[in-house]
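Appendix B. One record, verbatim.
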Amino acid sequence: MSKIHSTTVLGIIHNGKVALGADGQATFGNTVMKNNVKKVRKIADGKILVGFAGATSDAFTLLERFEEKLNMYRGGLKRAAIELAKDWRTDRYLRKLESMLIVMDKDEALIISGTGDVLDTEDGIFAIGSGSMFARAAAIALKKHAPQLSAKEMVQEAMTIAADICIYTNHNIEIHEIE
């Protein structure tokens, strides 16, 4: 059975602003199945951005659980992420889910994985999915050599570069930001 590859998601914190973007491509094996998948969302009344990579139904299950944790911990991003990761790692049903999340608010961002990881980065660049390393490399260069760009502009440029290189990433890029 062919594996579904479906994403490049990139988040950047830069100069007090936060942006999260993703391409719209979903592929099945070597076939593009859809070009306009929505992989980034605003939740919690627009205060939190979420992006996902991996199996779509798994990602939605995790997104629902994350929102429950946010409500339970009064919007505390880090606490909600840690509690979700703990459940994801220990719950028999959740443990089988194949997806990753980037969650961001105006102050911080985290990558949450099914192995129990809740990761922060030192450089404010967060990337997941098939083309993540292309987008991350481009974002590192942009932060270093074009610091005058906004977080949103950096996400746009880095995602465009990733789409030029990665066959699992397209140019149908959606970006959300929090100021």
